[in-house]
User: Fold this.
Amino acid sequence: MTAEPRPADDQALDDQGLDGQGLVDHELVEAAARVARTRSHGDNHTMAAAARTADGRIVTAMNAYHFTGGPCAELVLIGTAAAQGAYELSTVVAVGDRDRGVVPPCGRCRQVLLDYFPDLKVIVGSGDRLRAVRITELLPESYVWADHQLDGAE
Assistant:
């Protein structure tokens, strides 16, 4: 829900939120876990997400469950980032409440993340098997929303 400036001693991370060896951005995972741990509220807010912006900030958000189809944490995150002037995200992660750990994005979120950020890295896995993969690996041979727009359509 807030963007945190990137610490000066964290310069070893690249623009993808990864170190030079492709390791997971653990600061991002911890930011999402902290929000899930401290801000979860009953059944309405059970998932937190965090993203690293192109300029290195961390943005966090929570889901807003509703029986009519409230948005997932990743979708709230996109809007929260935009509200803070961050339109380019490099890495994203979602974490469940009750110490459920990292949770991969649902199909809808995968499609939206791909459409907004085709070069995005997504942290998936569990425990010591966390890894950062490109969104295209989570949604192979996918439909790209922008492809339906024709140049110079009459």
Observations:
- Confidence is low (pLDDT under 50) at residues 1-21.
